C-alpha cells in the first residue's frame, strides 16, 4: 500500500467495479501497529473484484487512526486492541461522533491476537460491533466485515461468552473493579510490565519517556495496592492480562 493510502488517501482500484460478495462493496480501514500484518490482511481480503472489500487506508497508532478514519469515512474499521497512543479503546472514544452518524455510521470490528476477556469487553463497551481473533480465515473475516457493515454483532465463538457473561447480569460488573480504576495507558503499561518489558522498551513502544513509564507504574502500584513489579506480574497473570 502506498504512503498516500496510509495517510488517508484513496486506495488504488484493485478490480472491477462490480466487486465481490454478490456485487456488494465495503470500504475498510486497517488499524494495526504491525505493518507486516496489515500487508498480509490487505493481500488476503483486499482483492476487491473477488471479495468486495476495498481497503481505503491504514494506520499504525491512535493519532494516525483517527486522522485516517476521519478522512476516509469507511463503512468498517478493522481495529487492533493494543496500539501506541492509548489502544483501540482510545480510537473508539475519539471516533464516537462517526459511530453515531445516523446516515453513514463508521462501524468497528476488533481484530486482535488477544482473547482476554478484559480486552473483548473493553472495546465492546467502547462501541465496537464485534471482536474476532487473528486466527480467523480470510473468508470468515470478509463475511464478518459485511455483517458488521449491516449492523450485526460478530464474535469469534469463544469470545461471545465473555460478552454474554459481562452484560447478562446486573449483579456483576462487566469489568474487574480493580482494573477499572486504571486508565487505558496505565493498563497498557501494566500489561507490558507483566510481560517482562524493561522501562526503556515500554517507553519506546508507547512513544513516551522513561520517566512517564515510571510515573504510570507508580500509579498502578498505588491504585492496586501492590508493592513491586513482581506482585504486579502475578496480579496481571491471575486476571489473564498477559
TrEMBL record:
Span of domain Response regulatory: 27-149
Alphabetic keyword roster: DNA-binding, Phosphoprotein
InterPro entries: CheY-like_superfamily (IPR011006), NreC/VraR/RcsB-like_REC (IPR058245), Sig_transdc_resp-reg_C-effctor (IPR016032), Sig_transdc_resp-reg_receiver (IPR001789), Tscrpt_reg_LuxR_C (IPR000792), WalR-like (IPR039420)
Domain of life: Bacteria
Residue intervals of the HTH luxR-type domain: 175-240
Protein name: Response regulator
Pfam families: GerE, Response_reg
Keyword Phosphoprotein: yes
Region of interest (Disordered), residue spans: 1-23
Modified residues (4-aspartylphosphate): 80
Region forming the signal peptide: none
Tagged with keyword Transport: no
